[in-house]
Amino acid sequence: MSFQDVFKKSFLEGFSGMDISAGRIMAALAVTCVLALYIFVIYRVMTRKSFYSKSFNVALAAMSVITAAIILAMQSNLVISLGMVGALSIVRFRTAIKDPMDLVFLFWSISIGIICGAGLYEVALLTSLVVTLLILVLENLPASRAPMMLVVNLSEADAEEELLGQVRQFSRVFRVKSRNISNGKEDLVIEVRTKKEGELAKVVSELPRVEAAALISHDGEVTF
To answer: What is the pLDDT along the chain (224 residues), one digit of tens a residue?
Structure first.
């Protein structure tokens, strides 16, 4: 027997598949289903979006079970594992993840499937509890007050200083985000932080050279 034959034999023996009993398969899938339902409930409770996607939530639960089944199959046979690696490498997911929290739940679901498929049920349970606690704590941390956008239409461009003087009385920190001057008129977009939104909008709208004023809430990221 040549060295090449010995190497091939030792390689195949080292990666030979293990016999997986039906009991282990049922136990792995059962634990995965329980944790997948747990992820389903947590996602439904913790999501605060105006549009809740039930299909995405169902996909999270199903993905854990499918991933666990793939891990079990890969442990049973080397040929199957190599085939699955090749098959999964050509899969392309083109659905955009708009909310970063959806990406967290997606990775959490896949991780639970991998861990349960490997038979590490205690790790899967502890990971789920830690992730839930972490999300709850970070979601309830007080965040900085989001700024408001003050949109003002001036009949004369020279009225900007008077306008900014009134804004300064209500907001110590403000920033002019946009200036648009056309035919002697000026449109301003000012980022302000104030607790007296109604009073600010009223005072600005009553200025003599203000044609229109609007105070809009800011739904984007908060700048610290």
So the answer is: 565 565 455 545 554 555 677 888 888 899 999 999 999 999 888 876 556 788 888 988 999 998 888 888 777 665 566 556 555 555 565 666 677 788 889 899 989 988 988 888 999 999 999 999 998 888 777 656 667 788 888 888 777 888 888 788 878 777 888 888 888 788 888 888 777 777 888 888 888 888 888 887 765 554 44
Whole-number Cα distances in Å, 186 to 64, 73, 166, 183: 56, 68, 17, 8
Q: Residue length, the chain?
A: 224
> For residue 52, what are the CA distances in angstroms to 102, 119, 196, 218?
11, 33, 33, 22
Domains of the chain: 3-139 (no CATH), 148-217 (3.30.70.260)
Spatial separation of the C-alpha atoms in residues 9 and 14, rounded to whole Å: 9
112 C-beta neighbours (distance < 10 Å), count: 29
CB burial of 43-61 (b: ≥16 within 10 Å; e: otherwise) equals: beeebeeeeeeeebbeebb
Q: What distance in Å separates the CA atoms of residue 97 and residue 100, rounded to the nearest whole number?
A: 7
Helix 100-117 with 54-76: angle, nearest 10 deg: 30
127 Cβ neighbours under 8 A, 6+ residues apart: 111, 112, 115
